[in-house]
């Protein structure tokens, strides 16, 4: 990891989404409220302990390191070039960003969203078969493969966004500024959570 990257444009929140039911896609909202230690108010993944169904089945007492899901809008641009139409919230994210390489951030990075909210990055989202099912609804196979990659050593690269926990409550809306505050060294690369 080389450290913070300077951007010529300001990083922003492009869209915010939530859904109170356990569905794959989330509904775009004018504003969402992040609650410290819990996640997105009125979202199905809100909670101190894990809320993702497969993880609840494995161990419902494990901490919820996936309170907020963020995806960079640049991924949607790449997918569009491959023939996939994906909009904000459709891959299940709460916050769609632009201008920050989310996947390059280390564990513990603090994302300042809007005037008050702070989310601490915990790791990578592990893309699942539901992504492929979403693509098939558009009569297009290969969406899951499109959000995965391999590095030069053949290791899997997950590109479907990052996860975090809410440190400081606050409202977040489209157009809000996004600032990444890197943790002290040594930096730890993101792994799936």
Description:
The protein is of the alpha+beta class and 193 residues long. The protein has a single domain, classed as PK beta-barrel domain-like (M1 Pyruvate Kinase, Domain 3, Beta Barrel). An eight-stranded mixed β-sheet has the order 2-1-6-5-11-8-7-13. Strand 3 and strand 4 form a beta hairpin. InterPro entries: MoCF_Sase_C, MOSC_domain, Pyrv_Knase-like_insert_dom_sf. It comes from Deinococcus rubellus. This is MOSC domain-containing protein. It holds the Pfam family MOSC.
What's a quick, concise take on this entry?
Residues 27-181 form the MOSC domain. By secondary structure, the protein is of the alpha+beta class.
Relevant terms:
3-stranded antiparallel sheet; 193 residues; M1 Pyruvate Kinase, Domain 3; alpha+beta; single chain; globular; 8-stranded mixed sheet
Residue stretches low in confidence (pLDDT < 50, at least 5 long) are none
Beta-strand share of residues = 25-35%
How would you write the strand order of the largest sheet? 2-1-6-5-11-8-7-13
What CATH calls the topology is: M1 Pyruvate Kinase, Domain 3
Pfam family, one: MOSC
Domain MOSC: 27-181
Protein name: MOSC domain-containing protein
Organism: Deinococcus rubellus
């Amino acid at each position: 990891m080389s450290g913070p990257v300077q951007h010529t444009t300001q990083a922003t929140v492009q869209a915010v989404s939530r859904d109170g039911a356990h569905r794959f896609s989330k509904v775009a909202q004018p504003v969402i409220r992040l609650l410290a230690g819990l996640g997105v108010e009125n979202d199905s993944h809100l909670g101190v302990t894990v809320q993702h169904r497969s993880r609840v089945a494995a161990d419902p007492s494990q901490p919820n390191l996936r309170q907020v899901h963020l995806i960079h809008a640049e991924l949607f641009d790449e997918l569009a070039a491959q023939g996939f139409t994906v909009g904000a919230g459709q891959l299940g994210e709460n916050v769609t960003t632009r201008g920050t390489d989310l996947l390059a951030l280390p564990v513990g990075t603090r994302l300042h969203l809007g005037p008050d909210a702070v989310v601490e990055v915990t790791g990578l989202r592990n893309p699942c078969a539901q992504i492929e099912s979403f693509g098939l609804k558009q009569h297009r196979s290969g969406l899951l493969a499109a959000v995965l990659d391999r590095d030069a050593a053949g290791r899997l690269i997950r590109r479907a966004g990052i996860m975090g926990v809410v440190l400081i409550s606050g409202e977040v809306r489209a157009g809000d500024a996004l600032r990444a505050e890197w943790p002290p060294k040594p930096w730890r690369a993101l792994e799936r959570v």
